[in-house]
Amino acid sequence: MIRHHHRALALALLLTAPATAAAQDAMTVLNAAVKAMRLENVTTIRYTATGSAYAIGQSFTPGGPYPRSAMTFVRDFDIDGFTVRQEFVNTRVERRGGGLPNRVGAETRQVQYASRNSGWPQHVFMWLNPPGFVKEAMKHNPTLTTERVGGRAFRVITVRVQDRYTLRGFFNDEDLLERVDTALDNNPVLGDPPLDAVFTGYRDFGGILFPSRIVHHLGLQPSFDFEIASVTPNAAVETTPPAGAGGAAGGGAVTVTSQTIANGVHYLTGGTHHSVAVEFSDHVAVIDAPLGEARSLAVIAEVRRLAPNKPIRHLINTHHHFDHSNGLRTYAAEGATVVTHPRNAAFYQQWWSTMPVLLRDRLVESGRTARFETVDERRVLSDGMRTLEVHVVQDTTHVEGMLILYLPSEKLLVEADLFTPPAPGAAPAQNAPGNDPLAAELVQNIERLDLDVERVVPLHGPGVASRADLDRAAGTTAAGR
């Protein structure tokens, strides 16, 4: 079988030159695969699996493994119609790293739909199973080459989808599909991250041959690793989403609401992720660039309204988790310098050193190169008008290289993820009062740094919280302060 390790295969592929196959054409290979897998009369399939899912972009260390959850799922796939319904249940098993919920033992349940009309991040996963690739490739003018990988010869079927995306399927000498390679285009941190699926352990499931194990990698890291529990060919499936459910990632207008919480300090909210703009005498520093380009452009427009004629000189990135860093490239395109931990900067520079082909964002269009300044312990941004302290958090289980921001004159602390206050009247989002370990870690760092905090400005949640709110979540008291 092909090696599971992405880097090993990538290196092997670089060292082999494709040669045009003379004896067979692409349709011959695909028809042989249909026969070998016994898919001739199969139009739908249902399969269940157990294994591991990984929180993409939420690793503890930049570039490190993504946090793992135990996963079970059922997937209904209309092969001929190329539509899918899948239902996941993930149970968190690792404390370190991000992703919600971050409590070990907590469950999340999700139902997803996809079709040919879905966005690529949803559409592509229908190709990452053998029946989907083999039968759908026949409809996309497949081409055939041969390649040697790890001393073995593979017939490689290549297709183009939507005149934009390339997929390659590797078939062994038993006419079985062992691997599909492609890339995503929706990740502003990784650019065009490689995406693959590896299929091993083919065996009989309900009369067809199907792999007993499937492993996905995204951006060189495992994203799914599951063992197939059951396969039902020609199952009665319902893959049409109910009204309002949709099947692709949602778009819609971005809403940014600004609240001035101190003189020249603006809380930019709206949705699940927030930013803070801090005015200096002749420029602005923005704290965090969450979610992506659309939100960053909306925040930038609001900052310009609030502080006309003051350019955004710094974008302070609290940590590398993708939901907090997907908008960084937008600020870099505006000429802002990204201020972050050294390991975060190295991680971004590694991925941004190659010009993306599929991702065409503002930074690509601008032709600029992102600039970075790093904070490895403490840094002070100051002029005659304002002082803003940047501190590196120590001893947190959430992420390495986390920054918190402190405005000493205003006694304001800006933080991301370590403390998310509940909505008024709601239970705490993460833990019962007094049992939030991340909030406790934040309190320990406030005390270590001897910061006189009166208000906490969270980059998630309903709004500004008091120090007493933080203490309640952490199970600490004001005694001795």
Give an account of the 3D structure.
This protein folds into 2 domains: 11-233, outer membrane lipoprotein receptor (LolB), chain A (Clam), CATH 2.50.20; 257-474, Metallo-beta-lactamase, Chain A. The chain has 11 helices and 27 strands. It has helices at 6-14, 26-37, 120-123, 130-137, 293-306, 322-325, 328-333, 342-352, 362-366, 437-449, 467-474, and strands at 19-20, 44-54, 68-78, 83-92, 107-114, 143-149, 152-161, 165-171, 177-183, 194-200, 203-205, 208-210, 213-218, 221-233, 257-262, 265-269, 275-279, 284-287, 312-316, 337-340, 371-374, 378-382, 387-392, 403-407, 412-415, 455-458, 465-466. α10 links the parallel β25 (412-415) and β26. α2 runs antiparallel to α4 and α10 crosses α11 (467-474). The longest helix has 14 residues, at 293-306.
Tell me the overall shape: elongated
- Give the tally of β-strands: 27
Q: Hey, roughly how much beta strand do the residues contain? A: 25-35%
| CATH class category name of the largest domain | Mainly Beta
Question: Biggest sheet, strands in spatial order?
Answer: 1-6-7-8-9-10-13-14-2-3-4-5
The largest sheet is: 12 strands, antiparallel
Low-confidence stretches: 1-23, 247-251
